[in-house]
Amino acid sequence: MSSSTANMTKVFGRPSSMTDVPFTYCPGCSHGVIARIIGQTLDELEIAEQTIAIAPVGCSVFCYLWYKCDAIQVAHGRACAAATGIKRARPDRIVFSYQGDGDFASIGTAESIHAANRGENLTVIFINNQIYGMTGGEMAPTTLVDQKTTTTPDGRDPNLFGYPIRFSEMIAQLDAPVYVTRQAVYDTRRIISTTAAIKKAFQNQVDGKGYSLVEVLATCPTNWRMTPLQANQHVTNTVTDVFPLGDLVDRG
Amino acid sequence: MSRGTVVIDTERCKGCGLCIEACPHQVLAFSGTLNKSGYDVVHMRDPEACVGCAFCAMTCPDIAIEVYRETVTT
Amino acid sequence: MGERLLLRGNEAIAEAAIRAGCQCYFAYPITPQAELLEHMARNMPRLGRTFVQAESEIGAINMVYGAAAAGVRTMTSSSSPGISLKQEAISYLAGANLPAVIVNIVRGGPGLGNIAPSQCDYFQATRGGGHGDYRTIVLGPSTVPEAGELTMLAFDLADKYRIPVVILADGLLGQMMEPVELPNAVDISSLPQKPWALTGAKRRDPNIIHSFDMDPEGLRQINRDLQAKYDRIAADEIRYETVQTDDAEIVIAAYGTIARIAKSAIRMARAEGIKVGLFRPITLWPYPSAALRDLAETTKTILTVEMSAGQMHEDVRLAVAERAELPFYGETGGVVPTPRAILNEVKKHVL
Question: Does residue C337 have a cis bond before it (omega within 30 degrees)?
Answer without folding.
Answer: no
